[in-house]
């Protein structure tokens, strides 16, 4: 039987791994854009490596976190991070409607975390 400390440590580590997996999703989304449809070698290789690492960390986090919570948070981090990279790095449009949509995603992530019990 696990101790309470081990259980809390395991849950905290799962959230850290999930955050890292989500950030790697942002990396692969950005480098996928740079790969020009896998036509450029270096960004294509980074994309594939980041994808593998992201999926690997997500799978480890899912050992402790519920599927719905882990997957939703992972995709949400990727969506918001990619949205931010698009604006800051790629010069994509900032409109009130896009900002509202991003705020709704962030709100959903916060609610998912609060409701997870982990």
Automatic annotation (TrEMBL):
<dbReference type="GO" id="GO:0022857">
    <property type="term" value="F:transmembrane transporter activity"/>
</dbReference>
<dbReference type="InterPro" id="IPR037185">
    <property type="entry name" value="EmrE-like"/>
</dbReference>
<comment type="similarity">
    <text>Belongs to the drug/metabolite transporter (DMT) superfamily. Small multidrug resistance (SMR) (TC 2.A.7.1) family. Gdx/SugE subfamily.</text>
</comment>
<feature type="transmembrane region" description="Helical">
    <location>
        <begin position="45"/>
        <end position="62"/>
    </location>
</feature>
<dbReference type="InterPro" id="IPR045324">
    <property type="entry name" value="Small_multidrug_res"/>
</dbReference>
<keyword id="KW-0813">Transport</keyword>
<keyword id="KW-0812">Transmembrane</keyword>
<keyword id="KW-1003">Cell membrane</keyword>
<dbReference type="InterPro" id="IPR000390">
    <property type="entry name" value="Small_drug/metabolite_transptr"/>
</dbReference>
<dbReference type="GO" id="GO:1990961">
    <property type="term" value="P:xenobiotic detoxification by transmembrane export across the plasma membrane"/>
</dbReference>
<keyword id="KW-1133">Transmembrane helix</keyword>
<dbReference type="GO" id="GO:0005886">
    <property type="term" value="C:plasma membrane"/>
</dbReference>
<dbReference type="Pfam" id="PF00893">
    <property type="entry name" value="Multi_Drug_Res"/>
</dbReference>
<keyword id="KW-0472">Membrane</keyword>
<protein>
    <recommendedName>
        <fullName>Guanidinium exporter</fullName>
    </recommendedName>
</protein>
<feature type="transmembrane region" description="Helical">
    <location>
        <begin position="96"/>
        <end position="114"/>
    </location>
</feature>
<feature type="transmembrane region" description="Helical">
    <location>
        <begin position="69"/>
        <end position="90"/>
    </location>
</feature>
């Amino acid at each position: 039987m696990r101790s309470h400390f081990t259980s809390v440590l395991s849950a905290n580590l799962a959230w850290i791994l999930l955050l890292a997996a989500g950030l790697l999703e942002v990396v692969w989304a950005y480098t996928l854009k740079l790969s020009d449809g896998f036509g450029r070698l270096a960004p294509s290789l980074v994309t594939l490596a980041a994808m593998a690492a992201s999926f690997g960390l997500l799978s480890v986090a899912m050992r402790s976190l519920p599927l719905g919570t882990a997957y939703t948070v992972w995709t949400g981090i990727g969506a918001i991070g990619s949205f931010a990279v698009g604006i800051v790095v790629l010069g994509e449009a900032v409109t009130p409607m896009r900002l509202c949509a991003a705020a709704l995603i962030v709100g959903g992530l916060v609610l998912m975390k609060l409701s997870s019990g982990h």
